Amino acid sequence: MKYMTSSEIRDTFLKFFESKGSAIMPSQSLVPVNDPTLLWINSGVATMKKYFDGSVVPENPRMTSSQKSIRTNDIENVGKTARHHTMFEMMGNFSIGDYFRTEAIAYAFELLTDEKYYGFPVEKLFVTYYPDDKDTYNRWIEVGLPESHLVPIEDNFWEIGAGPSGPDTEIFFDRGEKYDPEHVGLRLLAEDIENDRYIEIYNVVLSQFNADPSIPRKEYKELPQKNIDTGMGLERMTCIIQGGRTNFDTDLFLPIIHEIEKLSGKTYDPDGENMSFKVIADHIRSLSFAIGDGALPGNEGRGYVLRRLLRRAVMHGKRLGIQSKFLAGLVPIVGKVMEDFYPEVLEKADFIEKIIDREEETFNRTIDAGQKLIDELLVQLKDEGKDTLDGEDIFRLYDTYGFPVELTEELAEDEGFKIDHAGFDAAMKEQQDRARAAVVKGGSMGAQNETLSSIEVESTFLYETHTADGKLEVIVSEDKKVEKVSNGTAQLVFDQTPFYAEMGGQVADHGFVKNKEGDVVAEVTDVQHAPHGQNLHTVNVLVPLKVGQTYHLEIDEVRRNAVVKNHTATHLLHAALHNIVGEHALQAGSLNETDFLRFDFTHYAQVTKEELAEIEQEVNEVIWQNIAVKTIETDVETAKAMGAAALFGDKYGKVVRAVVIGDYSVELCGGTHTSTTSEIGLFKIVKEEGIGSGVRRITALTGQKAYEAFKNAENTLTEVATIVKAPQTNQVIAKVTSLTDELKVAQKDNEALAGKLAASQSDEIFKNVQESGKYSYIAREVKVPDVNGLRNLADIWKQKELSDVLVLIARIGEKVNLLVASKNSDLKAGNVVKELAPYIDGRGGGKPDLAMAGGSNAEGIQTLLAHVGEKLV
Q: Are residues 319 and 462 in the same domain?
């Protein structure tokens, strides 16, 4: 076994499978595109789902890739174990209905043991297999693996719900008895005991069944198309080949760790715990790659994961003594380590550093708030005579402020307090349960459709025409190929068609199928791509149709024209966003409908009104310049050299279409467009909103719809002018401003009158002072116009020495409002409010001297007043 760099290990894997006829697929964005079932791309096969379930047939059934992936279901283990990471690279080879068990096992054995490749000694390899899978057992024996190195494991069966599934066989590398001090041996594998001796390096999934959770596994049907899915973790392979004690002791992480040593003044010890070094090195890789792919820190979804990773890394930096901002400075190190295969990290380093630096600065302020909260909690515990910090409070510090439990424990113990670990664990489990429940289900692949997958006839989409004669090649009715259909819904494939199939955000064409006499025989209601790429027309059959007949196909031109205006406008909008918001504003989805366009893009803040106005103005100026919209067919590399932006998730063949709009916009796009920009007519943004962490959405209108929007706005302005009695619409602002100023004066007068009213009735309200233990209190139902009336009465009460506590309750509209004020430091108003609010089906809180609650149960008012005294004891 020879030494290799991580780049050489990756390159060896990819070139080996390329030599076996596999196409090398690029690593996809960590942010899934057109797959709502995934938060992150979490494996190599996650990018291959469309091939495995048969919805798309690949150009080459043999593929290989090295795919960056993120998994964050147990972040807490990063740094504690030798091989746990949030971001990792999964090398894989895939066969879609081509080679299967025989070749897959032979390839794995050759790659691992041949001196031309990794050159592992055969005696160091051990393999697990599914006990019922005798074929796999026999194949391993055939390639030369000793029988004693094969271990049956019942769990070696891959399935996630319905869809493709099958047995898998895992390959382990034996690192020797140095990592097995108790000489447990193969029981470590057979009994699935966590260990550092036998390291899983390769997994071959034999996808041969259609899983059906409603029946026993032995009754699963064979897939019409069997597939191979393998995975080999780059980090683990690098650890083994480079002889690292852990994955972190390799050239993938050590350059980052050495930089952390410089920043902290501390030394990394490969034989020590070093948790903080490992956490920072792991998390900065995830942050760099994820932000580079368009994910941004936030409060939900992907954004929450990134914010949590960043905060965890910062806190571990502080544990190493790094008090200033430091994470952004590690980004170039990450980029340099991964430059051979992922040059985009260095290319986007400035933007990635900017986001990380800004987030770290914000978190430093949060840390101060968390430190203040700890201090307040500890003071409160002292006042209450308690010696233990509550688990829920520890979890709040951890979850909201990013404080590691160890840091909270250290600060508490310095003040002589214990930690409620059990309470923290319970709160953590509740959060994990909520997170699991919130995970989008359905991550498994869909079941293969044998009927659609078997359609292999040629079919051509005609871009330049709205009508065409097409020979009917295939009819699918009730999921079966038939020669004719008389009525109902069917799916049709013609040898050529002008109907656009939904793709890239552009909706499908609708229209009609006619016979040679010109009669409508079917209505086209949808068009999608069949697995082999043909345009599959969904139709309502009106007159019997027959395979082999030629029909006249006509799209709905009015619908198409409306859609293309919106589609071309999205290209202009994308370019304007780059010019005004920044190059990081990458497309994250789009929809080009008949009545509107919707464009999603990555951005870390709300687009300002000024920016939106500038974007709208720029797009309209390009429209008015009447620039020709040209489509050039070329190869991907030539198109990119022209400046074309390729979108993650889009499938590009050998020939691509580059849509060129002068020198303003160049994008790879398979959709239909206007001939010139002036055909769009007009562009109007109607909404900008956030739809997820780090993702914004602009909704806009074009042409007639944009004109109608402007006209409606004009009509509204005219109505407002009439209401405020402005002689002309250009005087509305001045008139409204004047009325607003008058309203403010009136409100101040009302507040003054309310204060006087409160003062006039305060003597009556405050005269009944009651006693409860050592406290005096006043409890009354009062009539006030709003909650300010309650506050006014409380202000008057504070100025007088009347009682220790004031409790006022009022019916305001349909709500019941409760106010509690306290002058005694031993009696906190917030605690009293929480005790009383349930009587009115309410809840609330506040400061020690003043707290309020709102409720809905007016019938509970008298009961509340009757129980005030007992709540003060």
A: no
Cβ–Cβ under 8 Å, residues 599 and 700: yes
What lies within 8 Å, CB to CB, of 584 at 6+ separation is 294, 348, 351, 602, 603, 604
Q: By C-alpha distance, which of 149, 44, 160 is closest to 94?
A: 44
One-letter amino acid for residue 820 of the chain: V
Quick one: which of 710, 662, 688 has its CA closest to 577?
688
Annotated binding residue at 567? yes
For the CA atoms of 41, 42, 45, 50, the dihedral, rounded to the nearest 10 degrees, stands at -40
Angle 503-509-511 from CA coordinates, rounded to 5°: 160
**Per DSSP, what are the bridge partners of residue 809?**
781, 818
Confidence (pLDDT) at 442: 38
Outline where DSSP puts E strands in 703-804: 770-772, 775-781
Alpha carbons 484 and 490: distance in angstroms, whole number: 10
772 sits in which H/E element: strand 770-772
Domain containing residue 613: CATH number: 3.30.980.10
Looking at residue 443, its pLDDT comes to 45
The pTM (predicted TM-score) of the whole model is 0.73
User: In total, how many domains does the chain have?
Assistant: 5
Under DSSP, the state recorded for 478 is T
Rounded-to-integer distance, Cα 413 and Cα 391, Å: 15
At 848, the amino acid letter reads: P
Domain that holds residue 150: 6-242
Longest C-alpha distance within the chain, in Å?
A: 101
Contact 541, 489 (CB under 8 A): yes
Q: Which two tokens stand for residue 491?
A: 């799916």
Residue 738 falls within a domain, yes or no? no
Which residues are paired to 469 by β-bridges?
552
The C-alpha atoms of residue 400 and residue 308 are separated, in whole angstroms, by 9
**Minimal CA–CA distance to 192: which of 216, 170, 217, 159?**
170
Burial of 324 (C-beta count, 10 Å sphere; 0-12/13-18/19+): exposed
pLDDT beneath 50, residues of the chain: 438-444, 648-650
For residue 645 the two structure tokens come to: 């932006």
193 part of a folded domain:
yes
Does the annotation place 669 within a ligand binding site?
A: yes
Helix or strand (DSSP H, E) at 50? helix 49-52
Amino acid at 620: N
Backbone angles phi, psi at 819, to 5 degrees: -125, 135
Look at residue 578 and tell me if it is in a domain: yes
309 plus 238 within the same structural domain: no
Nearest residue to 167 (alpha-carbon basis) of 217, 108, 111, 236: 217
Q: Are 823 and 769 a contacting pair, CB within 8 Å?
A: no
Last residue of a domain, one of 555, 577, 592: 555
List the structure tokens of 609.
Answer: 């009104």
Q: Which amino acid is at 547?
A: V
**Residue 508: predicted pLDDT:** 96
DSSP 479: T
Looking at the fold, whether 225 and 302 belong to one and the same domain comes out as no
User: Cα separation of 524 and 301, whole Å?
Assistant: 38
Q: Look at residues 848, 797, 793 and name the one whose alpha carbon lies nearest to residue 817.
A: 793
213 neighbors 165 (Cβ within 8 angstroms)? no
Residue 79: the pLDDT is: 79
Q: Look at strands 775-781 and 805-812 and give their pairing.
A: parallel
d(CA 790, CA 812): 11
Can you give the pLDDT at residue 440?
42
CB neighbour list of residue 87: distance below 8 Å, 6 or more residues apart: 30, 68, 69, 70, 282, 285, 286, 289, 290
Helix, coil or strand: residue 225: strand
Residue 467: strand pairing partners: 554
Q: For residue 571, say whether it is annotated as part of any ligand binding site.
A: yes
